[in-house]
What does this fold into?
Amino acid sequence: MEYVFTEHVNYRIGKRNLMTFEVIDVIKNSDVTLKYKRKFHARKFIGRGTVEVVYTIEEKYINIITVYWL
It folds into this structure.
């Protein structure tokens, strides 16, 4: 499945010193994934801390909304 990064999430990735492959890894291999309405919140400890990625699953792609450190 394809991953779509919004302009907002691209800004947040740079601001928070993350790499796109780390964001995808959080989604694929999360420690915990919670669902609120249509949005998924995936959390994973990646060595420097715990990251949460918020995304939705559409028909043909995963739409990544934002990312932040917990």
Notes: The mean pLDDT is 97. Helices lie at 7-15, 20-28.
